[in-house]
Amino acid sequence: MSINCPNAHVEKYSAVILTNERANLRLRIRFKLRYLLAVSEALVVENDQIASIDYRYHFQDEENSLIFRYDSTPHFPDLPSFPHHKHLPDNVIACEKLHLTTVLQEVSEFLK
């Protein structure tokens, strides 16, 4: 998958290794000096594979207004994809967990 994100830079990166099997990742990517994608993910190693146990991919504009956010906070139990969901400016919808590259592709499409 090719992702074209001109005028993007990593504003902040933090990876905290808690144990040999657990780490927390935080990343802030600034696009065109206005838009921000904030990534927060708790990761574990299970059966020699990296798995996400909690995540948030939050995309906002220069006025800190939400464009979208994918997360796994368990506060919408009636959604069929519980606990996974997507926040939009005026709605919350069901969705499965996306890979970060897919989220970056969505950001790239939005910025075109």
Structure description:
It is a single chain. The radius of gyration is 15 Å and the shape is globular. Helix content is 11%, strand content 54%. It is built from 1 helix and 7 strands. The two termini are 17 Å apart. With 112 residues, it is mainly β. It has one domain.
What fraction of the residues are assigned to beta strands by DSSP?
A: over 45%
The overall strand count is: 7
Strands ordered across the widest β-sheet: 1-2-3-4-5-6-7
Largest sheet geometry: 7 strands, antiparallel
First-to-last CA distance: 17 Å
Structural class: mainly beta
Helix content: 10-25%
Mean pLDDT: 92
Shape: globular
SSE order in H/E notation?
EEEEEEEH
Radius of gyration: 15 Å
Total tally of structural domains: 1
Question: Number of helix segments?
Answer: 1
Write the layout of secondary structure elements.
Elements: E1 8-19, E2 22-31, E3 35-46, E4 49-60, E5 66-71, E6 85-88, E7 91-94, H1 100-111
Antiparallel strand pairs: 1-2, 2-3, 3-4, 4-5, 5-6, 6-7
Keywords:
112 residues, mainly beta, 1 helix, globular
Provide a short characterization of the protein structure:
This protein is mainly beta and 112 residues long. It has one helix at residues 100-111; strands at residues 8-19, 22-31, 35-46, 49-60, 66-71, 85-88, 91-94.
